Amino acid sequence: MHALPPLEQPVEWLLLVLDGAGIFVFAVSGAALALRERLDLFGVLLLAFVTALFGGILRDLLLGATPPETLTSWRNAAIALSGGIFTILARNGIGRLAKPVRLFDAIGLGLFAAAGTGKALDFQVDPLMAPAVGMVVGIGGGILRDLLVTRTPLVLQAEIYAVAALAGGYAVVAGQALGIAAQPAMIGGALLCLGLRLLALYRGWTLWQPPAPPGL
Amino acid sequence: MHALPPLEQPVEWLLLVLDGAGIFVFAVSGAALALRERLDLFGVLLLAFVTALFGGILRDLLLGATPPETLTSWRNAAIALSGGIFTILARNGIGRLAKPVRLFDAIGLGLFAAAGTGKALDFQVDPLMAPAVGMVVGIGGGILRDLLVTRTPLVLQAEIYAVAALAGGYAVVAGQALGIAAQPAMIGGALLCLGLRLLALYRGWTLWQPPAPPGL
Amino acid sequence: MHALPPLEQPVEWLLLVLDGAGIFVFAVSGAALALRERLDLFGVLLLAFVTALFGGILRDLLLGATPPETLTSWRNAAIALSGGIFTILARNGIGRLAKPVRLFDAIGLGLFAAAGTGKALDFQVDPLMAPAVGMVVGIGGGILRDLLVTRTPLVLQAEIYAVAALAGGYAVVAGQALGIAAQPAMIGGALLCLGLRLLALYRGWTLWQPPAPPGL
Description:
The structure is a homotrimer.
Chain A: H1 10-36, H2 41-63, H3 69-72, H4 75-89, H5 98-122, H6 130-148, H7 162-177, H8 182-203
Helix pairs in contact in A: 1-2, 1-4, 1-5, 2-4, 2-6, 5-6, 5-7, 5-8, 6-7, 7-8
């Protein structure tokens, strides 16, 4: 997705722009946490980078696609670092941006999960496991972000986030099994994930939390 | 080990069943911790998956055997998720299962360490380092499990666990150096690890804890 | 760098010795933290190993150079474990060694960053991203060390450390772009990193810490 498409391909351009927007807002979420934790400039930019790009790096390591995309071009890093610098500059107003950040975060999640699933299918991953690779792209960065400031990852605690990514991934697998072409299947999966995530956000859906075992 | 062996190979069948049992109880230990930490359904199943399978994934990443076995078939994931669901359903009785869980955990440790060492030798790892790869299969999942709930990994604190895995791995290396065939050497290494681990458990052996440096 | 060079190559010998000294003092820093955290013998040696060698392992995983160098020869492990054992034996005097440890830590940082950048350039990493790979060799081990004892990595908090590694890496890239041979470019980059790090240590330079956002 990273070589620039010719101008007459509007869908490719749209996906490229949304992919970049997803990286940007993932980076904002990493940098915002780093500011709260009082990290230094390097720490803020590293958390922006890691939150935005570690999921994709992990996908490429799992698939054996080395060096990872993030290292073979400076595009991803430039977007992530821009997100980090933007967060520092706009820190006084970042609270007011919560709604658009959540929207583009959900768009990014859908795209990363669907495209990651598609890439996993190309690399001989079992179709039932490919959505797990897509999910890793969506949640891997956030997990490492939380571990680096030593808190239990948010994604493990009562929110419909990873599950939306998995649903989008299985839609891609189903589409491919039904003979739908790769790009429409991917867009369908991304939209399903986006819809589920937004519904969960605006209706306050959470995931069941099993009761604690007695005295364990 | 994952293609089904023909019925007339009882040793292969036994190893396959024990390998599955090891994955299952590793998953139980991850899920039990997740229940105690009050994670949601996704968190419980992710911790089951990671505890059971991350060690093997890390082994395959280190060896360049990508995509990892856990992604090229759904068998491992199915066993690990079954272990997670079982733990949720049986949560009120899980305390009474502590003894069989410890037994099968030790069996799994032995098998994972010995088979991991054998695979490392096949991938041109130095014979003195191959047992470290086998050990990673046995302890990698538990370390990530503990990090995800932000506690210092148990395996670093006063128990004969990783050391038993290393001993089993070096037995495999020694067997191979002495010209013993791969399968008997592996079974010998697994039994040595199992024996050491059970002895340590039932005799309460612990590893020496060096004194803290003064004022450091 | 790990096959022994012939005796008439004094620069190669010097680099090999300094590389080993860097691994040794990285291991000391891991083992010293482990002693403070009251880990057992295995935990102390594992933290020594991981602090000294995880950065290089991560570099090789990112580049697809598997199995990593640390697994294809026992040299690195032997040096790291020697550093761990030395720390246990010398624990009462380790406080007095703080100055030489800091000096060799800075030398190691410079060498690891410069050599890692050079290796990344050989593996088709984008020249703008290659210094990030070199930096990972220098800081990856320390980050995992801190995560294993559940504290926020030191390198994210107000010190000129990773930034010195990046500067050294960009010097290597610039040297290569200007047509300078690989070895002198690498030595120049290592010296730049070393100089920056020592200046920062002795002048007390720190990195800017952005103010916390209001009420975020």
